[in-house]
Amino acid sequence: MKKVLKFTLAFLAILFVLVPAVAAHLMVHKGFKVEDPSATPVDSAWLYSELKERYPREEMTFPSGENLLHGFLYGKGNEGPLLVFAHGIGYSHETYLSLITWFVDHGYPVFAPDLTASGKSGGNDRKGLIQSALDVDAALTFLESDSRFGDMPKVLVGHSWGAFGVIGALSFDHDVTAVVSFAPFAYPRRELCNALSMGLGPLVQLTRPWLSIEDRTVFGRYAGLNAVKSLRHTTVPVLVVHGTGDEIISYGKSSVIAYRDRIGNPSVHYMTVDEEGRCGHESIFRAKGETHLNEPFMQSINEFIVNNL
Questions:
Q1: What Rg value do the Cα atoms of the chain yield, rounded?
Q2: How far, in Å, CA of 16 to CA of 279, rounded?
Q3: Per-residue confidence at 178, pLDDT binned at 50, 70, 90?
Q4: What is the pLDDT of residue 276?
Q5: Longest dimension (CA), the chain
Q6: Which residues, in sequence order, are bridge partners of residue 68?
Q7: From CA 31, how far away is CA 195, in angstroms rounded?
Q8: 14-30: string of b/e by CB count within 10 Å (b at 16+)?
Q9: What is the β-pairing status of strands 110-114 and 67-74?
Q10: What is the Cα–Cα distance from 70 to 61, expressed in whole angstroms?
Q11: Contacts of 191 (CB under 8 A, 6+ apart)
């Protein structure tokens, strides 16, 4: 009887350890795996096929880890500074053509890469939330090696996954003039846990050690990269923008703004968007159902950039 009890307890202990580990592994890999990177949503009101004559672009490629990424230069004749744009997860840069073309119309050349396993870029696995920062780092390294862009002031702009990416890039050795980050999450692993909790509920707490191991396996020395750490010591002017009604990255729980006291850096500025109908994750740029961006909002973003050149 004692042997049976010991066996049962040992079996339950193994299940207690293995089930969360397997669940974390499967859910993470399923979440970041991509069957067809080119099948990303686009804004039907802003299709490049209808804009290409007005907004010609130059396509370039550069490496990020083992993958070859594609970047697109818009507004080639504009004087600068060069605006580097990073898109959200599950999308490509073309999803944000309304934003990209707004900056082009206001005098910026814009370099917009498709991040790993997105759009035209290589890879069938986005790997994890930290990957966007590594891709922005790779994009900046590529631009700095090109004589056309090496000495040009560079402004980083990103949304969601890309918003974390442009903040995370501050932890690398690049000369960045300013950063605008729309709806960034503060801690990649915590944000991933928040997403997993929708399927696992309170059991998600059991996956935390395994998610840490996953990060270290995939990202090595970059596994601990987070927005709070990147922002705490930067001297680069940064504007963090977040909507109070964000349904993806919680304003009060997961956002960078939620950790502003922990950051405590006067170089980092914050903008809260609480306008009804325009304070969500996607609607931060324009109210739902509208085609064009909110002009006063965009002018305030542009003013921040101009004032910090």
A1: 21
A2: 41
A3: very high
A4: 87
A5: 82
A6: 63
A7: 10
A8: eeeeeebbebbbebbee
A9: antiparallel
A10: 5
A11: 129, 185, 249, 254
